[in-house]
Design brief:
With 374 residues, this protein is of the alpha/beta class. It is built from 13 helices and eleven strands. The longest helix is centred in the middle third of the chain and has 17 residues. Pfam families: Thiolase_C_1.
Length: 374
């Protein structure tokens, strides 16, 4: 794009069990805080993009939210790629700003499956439900089983991913689960759907998060405190159900990452940290390899050496990710990427200047990538 987009403001609610909160109220709180962070008046916003709530899908939700916020945006609506929606919406906002369709956009996600409905995560899965295949976790367990067939010691990598996320979440005062994890506890935990243990699986959470997107020039004009440039964006969509895939351990994450890295003119080795969608630990392992951070053997050794920690060679999910900060799908990873680039994360990576963020939806159906930097 000729003019660079920036994330000018970020906002979030509390995460966890939030009884009595509607998705509208959660979205409004996160959006208000994002605008306050950017020091932008609501009336200046002319774009509103929102992810459809998983816990309660409804028509015209974007217009409903705009009405509740007292806004009449000229650009926007609802977008749905599951957990990949957030980065994709940021990309759409950036392109709309470039094309003159809007000037300042709010991008937001809220959901309340913890105190509302979890039906979307527990539903029977197509015709295979007659054979007992029910719930999202069963789909990921199928993928994890194949991954373990190809890499028999992958459970050790899963464990090290979970331990790193939980260590970071323990230091994050906003995290839903602030309890470190050790090897013995990980190995003693129950199976949720074998081969995925309890600590391989993300949290179920109420909450919301939002960002303000505008051009770099507009941010300078408005004297935004700490804008973070969007260097690259990308998507890659598998668009086929799990049982129809030729290879269960390959997704289109590589296409998404290659698009974003090419746009940024950067490579994986240029990244100082990574916020990787961790709905399940197997997702992180597959994404890191697809992004070009190393082969399975290299990642395995990196995990064993503590390389996923804040002071490691590849710090990942430094706020705790979906495994520890909040299970709400994806936007919280963007917020942590922004904090790392601003230098104000509670688990700050020293001299962090470049960060890659991944989002993923469905059962690895969709993927989106965001590269942030200074």
């Amino acid at each position: 794009m000729a003019s660079r987009a920036v994330i000018a403001g970020i906002g979030q609610t509390a995460f966890g069990r939030l009884p009595g909160r509607t998705t509208e109220s959660l979205n409004i709180e996160a959006c208000r805080k994002a605008l306050e962070d950017a020091a932008i008046e609501k009336d200046r916003v002319d774009g509103l993009l929102v992810k459809v709530p998983t816990s309660r899908v409804e028509m015209m939700y974007g217009q409903k939210l705009a009405e509740a916020m007292g806004m009449q945006p000229r650009f926007g609506g609802v977008f749905d790629q599951g957990g990949a929606s957030n980065i994709s919406m940021i990309g759409i906002a950036a392109m709309a700003i470039e094309a003159g369709q809007c000037e300042i956009a709010l991008v937001s996600l809220a959901d309340n499956p913890k105190t509302g409905s979890r039906a979307a995560y527990e539903k029977p899965w197509g015709d295979a439900a007659d054979l007992g295949w029910s719930s999202v976790v069963a789909g990921y367990a199928l993928i994890a089983r194949r991954y373990l067939h190809e890499f028999p010691n992958a459970e050790e990598l899963f464990r090290d991913i979970a331990i790193a996320a939980r260590a970071h979440g323990a230091e994050n005062p906003n995290a839903q689960l602030r309890k470190p994890l050790d090897t013995a506890t990980y190995e003693a935990a129950n199976w949720i759907v074998e081969p995925l243990r309890r600590d391989d699986c993300c949290l179920i959470s109420d909450g919301a998060a939002a960002v303000v997107v505008m051009s770099e020039a507009r941010a300078k004009e408005l004297d935004v405190r700490a804008p973070v440039p969007v260097l690259g964006i990308g998507q890659g969509n598998s668009s086929s159900d799990v049982t129809l895939r030729a290879d269960l351990t390959k997704t289109r994450a590589d296409v998404s990452a290659a698009t974003a890295f090419a746009m940024a003119g950067l490579e994986p080795r240029d990244m100082d940290c990574a916020q990787i969608y961790d709905c399940f630990t197997v997702t992180v392992a597959m994404t890191l390899e697809a992004y070009g951070f190393g082969s399975f053997d290299a990642l395995h050794e990196l995990g064993r050496a503590g390389g996923f920690g804040v002071s490691g060679d590849l710090p990942i999910n430094t706020s705790g990710g979906l495994l520890s900060e909040t299970g709400m799908p994806g936007m919280q990873l963007v917020l942590e990427g922004v904090r790392q680039m601003r230098g104000d994360s509670v688990n700050q990576v020293e001299n962090a200047r470049k960060c890659v963020v991944s989002n993923q939806g469905g059962i690895m159906h969709t993927h989106s990538t965001l590269i942030l930097g200074q």
